[in-house]
Amino acid sequence: MEESKSFVAKYVIDQLILVQHSLEVLESQCEDSDVKNEPQVASLLSAIKLTFAKHETKLKSHLFSNFEGSERPVGAKIRDAFTALTGTVIGLYSDLRTEKVSKMLRDDYTVLCLGTLTYSMLLTTSRSLNEPQTAELCSELMKDYPPFVMKLNEIIPFVVNDDLTKRGFQVKTEAATEAVECSKKAWANR
Fold it and tell me: How far is CA 4 from the centre of its chain?
């Protein structure tokens, strides 16, 4: 049977890989000319990018200070997993640079939700397998994502209208406000 510490380390590495790939995508998005032309979006993406950079630093530090006793050096595990995923994920995300801003934000929203869920899963695993430092870190870091998800929920409808306008469509400007209100009601009725 696999040692619990090694088992938890693998999932910390998975979380780190998700954060690193997301950070690469966010760096590209922040350099995108369409994003730069929308100050509110550029500011939000910059804040999300800084948060992912903070998570990368904390996860790396946690790995190297808490999981040195694993059967293989953690650095080798990170390198192996990173190499295995790089081609597929980077290839997928590199296409985002040609997408409109609303699709970028949709994908960022998805990554933030996925990140929140994977922190929750890692938190559960860590507590169940008696790795309190990892559980504490997950509890701390997972709190960073929901405010961004909420903010994206509020601006995406307006960005969708902007994208439609740029494509030459006549849009109902009030549709974005209505979508935001409808979304707020949907979340309030949970």
Answer: 26
pLDDT for residue 167: 87
What percent of the chain clears pLDDT 90, i.e. is strictly above it?
Answer: 75
Given 1.25.10, 2.40.10, 2.40.160, 1.20.1260, which CATH number is that of 4-144?
1.20.1260
Q: pLDDT at residue 26 above 50?
A: yes
d(CA 168, CA 158): 16
Could you tell me if 171 and 165 are in contact, meaning their C-beta atoms sit under 8 angstroms apart?
Answer: yes
Residues sharing a CB contact under 8 Å with residue 70, sequence separation 6 or more, in sequence order: 5, 6, 9, 77
Place of tokens 């808490």: 66
Locate the domains of the chain by residue range.
Answer: 4-144
Contact between residue 136 and residue 122 where contact means Cβ atoms under 8 Å apart: no
pLDDT digits (tens, 9 = 90+) for 134-145: 999 999 999 999
pTM here? Answer: 0.83
Report the alpha-carbon distance of residue 105 to residue 111 in Å, rounded: 10
